[in-house]
Amino acid sequence: MPEHIIVIDFEATCWVTQPRSTNRDIIEIGACVLNTRSGISMRTADILVRPTSSRIGFYCQRVTGITPERAASGVEFRQACEWLRTAYGATMPWAAWGSWDRAQLETQCTREEVPYPLSSDYIDIKLLVAERFGWKRPKSLGKALSALSMQFQGRKHRAMDDAINAARVLHRAFLRR
């Protein structure tokens, strides 16, 4: 087990029903480095990202709390990826809750011709936790926290809060070897 793992969560543009030809854009990146021995999350980051090919509508605002005005003050996706690469390097393993975050990052990097900023060494926390705790099927982050008698800290669907909570669950899973 590595001593440090980057835990990341992305929030993206979203709709009740996604329009046919609309791409989703990452609008917030939350990241922390989990010390797998101590369970402490350090080197946290919360980055707002300007959407490039979609807009933030009412539903997305309600879910994420991010308004179009706030997102407009964010950095370009390319800059956010450069920051991730510089801050965390492309060699440290990284993790997220489920496969969506990795797929969205890969898709958006390809679409915008931005070099992939993270290691290919990826941990799907959702699957790992289900396996370690013997759950028949993976759970949402909120349900996993409840099943482990842990409280969600912060606001759901805020990237930094989701990343820190996912790191807490990941650490609990590592303790269960």
Key words describing this protein structure:
177 residues, alpha/beta, 5-stranded mixed β-sheet, 7 helices, 39% helix, globular
Structural class: alpha/beta
Largest sheet: 5 strands, mixed
* CATH architecture call: 2-Layer Sandwich
Strand content: 15-25%
- Residues in helix, %: 25-40%
Short note summarizing the structure:
This protein is of the alpha/beta class and 177 residues long. The protein has seven helices and five strands; from the N terminus they run βββαααβαβααα. Helices cover 39% and strands 19% of the residues.
Task: Explain what the structure shows.
With about 180 residues, this protein is of the alpha/beta class. The protein has a single domain (about 5-175), classed as Nucleotidyltransferase, domain 5, CATH 3.30.420. About 40% of the residues lie in helices and about 20% in strands. The chain has seven helices and five strands. It has helices at about 60-65, 70, 75-90, 100-110, 125-130, 140-145, 160-175; strands spanning about 5-10, 25-35, 40-50, 95, 120-125. A five-stranded mixed beta sheet has the order 3-2-1-4-5, with helices on both faces. β2 (about 25-35) and β3 (about 40-50) form a beta hairpin. α5 (about 125-130) runs parallel beside α7. It is globular.
